[in-house]
Amino acid sequence: MSATFVGMPAFPDAAKTALADSQLRGNLAHATGTIRGKRAQVVGEVSEWEELRRAGAAIKDNALHNLDEHLLRLERSLTERGATVHWARDAEEACGIVAGIALDNGIDELVKVKSMATQEIGLNESLAERGIAAVETDLAELIVQLGDDLPSHILVPAIHRNRAEIREIFLRRMASAGRPAPDDLTDDPAELAAAARSHLREKFLSARMAVSGANFAVADTGTLMVVESEGNGRMCLTLPEILVSVVGIEKVVPSWDDLDVFLQLLPRSSTGERMNPYTSTWTGVTPGDGPQEMHVVLLDNGRTRALADEVGRQALRCIRCSACLNVCPVYERTGGHAYGSVYPGPIGAILNPLLRGVGHDEQVDSLPYASSLCGACFEACPVRIDIPEVLVHLRSKVVDAHRGQAPKPEAVAMKAASWMLADARRLGPLERFAGVAGRLLTRISRRSAPGGRRVLGSLPGPGARWTTARDMPAPPAESFREWWRRTRVERSES
């Protein structure tokens, strides 16, 4: 069984470990920089890009505001076209449904299209516990799976791996899972892709069941859609006898016409392409063509919780493009594993707390703070999710969830500061002391910031955690109150 995110430390601890890995930082900087450049080029070609962003946000908001109606229409459309619809309240129910379909048909191995929803519910691990092997067919997902690794990016799950590492994984693990890699395999990308293609071809031809997600689900027609770049999705969606699609309830759009907007926004924002090489749509069961048994699992798993949050519900607009990850300075330096979830980066920092709730898990509660609030994510988001706004909102919810408990050192410090700043009789002596101490420490440290501004060295005690990463400005030699008294006296005497 592959590794899971269960038991991951809070973001600050996980990020500290990641920052110490220079190879990881190098891999991330190269990959995200390349993707950013491609995206900027193709987005710059679209003069009405902002209008498209607003249209995408409006379509998503309309769908979310009328979600009950659209979902019932989607269920009706799917059923009329021969699909079986299942409703899953949580991960356990969804995994049980998929496993039950496989066991009822005597299937012990299936193939999978890349799917964030199935990763979110831990489907592969749940199936493995029931004796069913789930084979990832996306190249990056295959690398992660063979390496007993964890995904670290929404679009490129193996972004933290370089070519040499991938070659070693293929040589070491591919044989135990099926067709082995060639003994003379090099780290040339074309050779690595060819080895994966040969390995997966056997899986495609022998699989009787496939599992997918969906980028969009059209309520009017019961059509599901997957966009991808490698063709593995097309193989999974057409060759097996049985197809099971696990679809988050927020993926519904009212009509086929709505896809026009998203098929311009998504490829440019994700892979930096004008359109995806493979855009697959399927509508029910067609006798003699494609899967003859189709199941759709409509997944909640916290989405109605997020929908009830008036500020946070905009996160459900997300089309999983990963543009926010590629522009985020925090993600670029820490990678995805530090977020402790299949949803990393800025969108993960809001989506995980919204889906799972706050106040009961230290790791989840740490995520809204995993940001500098620079706003780059909002500027890049093709559906205009105001991630900084939601982050600040969730920080307040985390604080509220812990009210009544033993106060943290930060809360004690803020309370003390509030008491001190509330009365000039208390603040005045502190200012005078700070001025004397500041002049003394400045002489000792002999440090200056750019522009000649004097700064302090490392502070003692808890203050050391601040000054290890930041410059602490030296207190002014004269406080405002002292300056005011001095200048007023000088004016009165003159």
Brief description of this entry?
51% of the residues lie in helices and 11% in strands.
Could you characterize what this model shows?
Among the domains are: 66-304, Rossmann fold (3-Layer(aba) Sandwich), CATH 3.40.50.10420; 409-493, no CATH class. It is 51% helix and 11% strand. It has 23 helices and 13 strands. It has a 6-stranded parallel β-sheet with strand order 1-10-7-4-2-3, with helices on both faces. A 4-stranded mixed β-sheet has the order 8-5-6-9. Strands 11-12-13 form a 3-stranded antiparallel β-sheet, covered by helices on one side. The protein is elongated. It starts with 10 loop residues before the first helix and ends with a helix. The mean pLDDT is 91.
Helices, strands, pairings?
Layout: H1 11-19, H2 22-43, H3 49-65, H4 67-80, E1 84-88, H5 91-104, E2 109-112, H6 116-120, H7 123-129, E3 133-136, H8 139-146, H9 163-177, H10 189-206, E4 209-212, E5 216-218, E6 223-228, H11 232-238, E7 242-248, E8 252-253, H12 259-270, E9 278-282, E10 293-299, H13 303-307, H14 323-327, H15 329-334, H16 345-356, H17 362-366, H18 376-380, H19 387-401, H20 409-421, H21 424-445, E11 447-448, E12 454-456, H22 464-467, E13 472-473, H23 480-493
Parallel strand pairs: 1-10, 2-3, 2-4, 4-7, 5-8, 7-10
Antiparallel strand pairs: 5-6, 6-9, 11-12, 12-13
Protein name: Lactate utilization protein B
InterPro entries: 4Fe4S_Fe-S-bd, 4Fe4S_Fe_S_CS, FTHF_cligase-like_sf, Helical_ferredxn, LUD_dom, LutB/LldF, LutB_C, NagB/RpiA_transferase-like
Domain Lactate utilization protein B C-terminal: 398-487
